[in-house]
Structure prediction request, 476 residues.
Amino acid sequence: MKKLYVWWEWIDTRVTYEVRFPYDGTLVDTVCLGRDADIDLALDRAHASLPTTRAMSSWERANVLRNIVRGLSVVRDELAELLCRENGKTIREARVEVARCIATFEVGIGEAERLYGETFDLGITSMSRGRFALTRLFPVGVVAGIVPFNFPLNLAAHKIAPALATGCPIVLKPATSTPLSLLRLAEIVQDSGWPAGAFSVVPCDRTVGQKLVEDPRVALLSFTGSPDVGWRMKTAAGTKRVVLELGGNAACVIDSDVRDWDHVFSRLMIGAYYQAGQSCISVQRIYCHESVYSEFRDRLVAEIAKLRVGDPRDEATFVGPLIDSKNADRIMAWTEEAVAAGATLLAGGKRLSDTIVAPTLLEGVPASAKANCEEAFGPIAVLAPFSDWDELVREINTSRFGLQIGVFSNTLPHVWKLFDEVDVGGVVHGDVPSFRADNMPYGGVKDSGFGREWVRYAIRDYVEEKLLVLDTTFRA
Prediction:
């Protein structure tokens, strides 16, 4: 049984949750769930440790991150297996997530070493002659990080690395269904040299976790998850800083001048159906230029038919299970709703087990259908032709989400038009919107949230800039 981790202690709360393998429901492990008192203890210890973390030098913070990288590298295969079992992602996808997690901490090392302010002359008028400004960056305080189930390790790393790089204590709440990999990471952090009390992992239900949102001891709340939950948290957070990485229903545009079709289809399969579509930047809306639409549609259907669906532990599996049966129910209901409204089912649309839905493609989906206008978070995509680029921009912008889009085009003005006019946080050229490098500023607009992740950009929210004005003419 896995206990929760608070202040170098592994606490048995006697309140438990069974983590089960989404593929077949077998028990992976049993985890202790935190109570209100456990959140209080974690926040007390974090707040008490702030003077210690605040006083750490750049070298000390960077060295902690180096030790975490070393620790993760030793257990990377174990972590991949754990991710596969608790989350249901394929073993190949799990290995990629572990590698990305390590890379995120590696980036954090450099940012910890580059955390400095600036100096400049204030003497732009006679009244400030002889005065200079010096700025330094100080940790904002205790950070609360709330992590979703789909990337339980790497999305946690995007909260932990900037916290440790800047000297902020952090308390983390993993998704109830996927706490195991983060608890394993806690063991590595414990051995890294990070101060006692400055790192806690408290699996708990949403009611208990609400204390992290509302408690005044928290200076920064960083949440990744659903829009409805995220915006409610922002309202309840009061005066603390809030960073929200929320949902999307990402569009991908195929221009008429594409030449490397093999590359396009390879990336579309990954973009739409990797991790069973459970990504906020999964390809959901595909727009193809009408001049190549028929040929494109036929091959897209053929490529989907080749995808291997099944046990995520099998190296050959491309599409594994959804996180639970409720989400499979939802994907089937959205598919049926679209077809009833006039859409054509081109591929999939079948439930293969309690948690597995075949990769699904729909054509002619009405704008109001959930499969088109909401975040699917499952193995379903919709396909439509376009001819006019202005109309395409308007169509993409009808979404209440604005995370990322992808565009395959050899015509730079078309790419630039999307970059200029589509309301999203990022445009990915030559690839699907699902592309994310862990050293790029990632985040969205509209209902996709605000703030940017990548340690260098996230640090802006994790620090306070303080000013010292020096008078070089002062003689007392």
Summary: Residues 91-113 form the longest helix (23 residues). The chain has two domains: 4-246+448-468, 250-429.
